[in-house]
Amino acid sequence: ARAKIHHRSMSMAAGVPWMLGMADTMWASIAPLRVDFGMIGLVLGACAMAIFVWSYLDYNSIPTLKVDLTEQERTQGHLEQDLKLSKSGKHPKGEGIGESDGQVVCYDPATLDVLGKKRIHSKEEVEEKVRRCAKAQEAWAKTSFKKRRMLLKIIQKYVLEHQMEICNVSAKDSGKPMLDAAFGEILTTCEKIRWLLAEGEAALKPEPRSAGSMMFYKSARVEYHPLGVVAAIVPWNYPFHNILNPVTAAVFAGCGIVVKVSEYATWSSEYYERIIHAALDEVGASRDLVQVVHGFATTGQALVKAKEISKVVFVGSTGIGRKVLEAAAENLTPVVLELGGKDPVIVCDDANLSQLVPIALRATYQSCGQNCTGAERILVQEGIYQKFLDAVVPTVRGMRQGAPLAGLVDCGAMCMPRQAQNVQALVDDAVRKGAKVVVGGSLKTKISKGQGQFYPPTILTGVTREMRIWNEEVFGPVMCVERFATDDDAVNLVNSNPFGLGSAIFSGSKARAKAIASRLKTGASSINDFATTYLCQSLPFGGVKESGFDKFGGVEGLRGMCYTKAVCEDRLPFLVTTVPPELQYPVKPHSFRMVCGIVHFFYGVGLYSNLCGLCRLLKALVLPGGKPKRVPPSKRD
Question: Is 376 a catalytic residue?
Answer without folding.
Answer: no
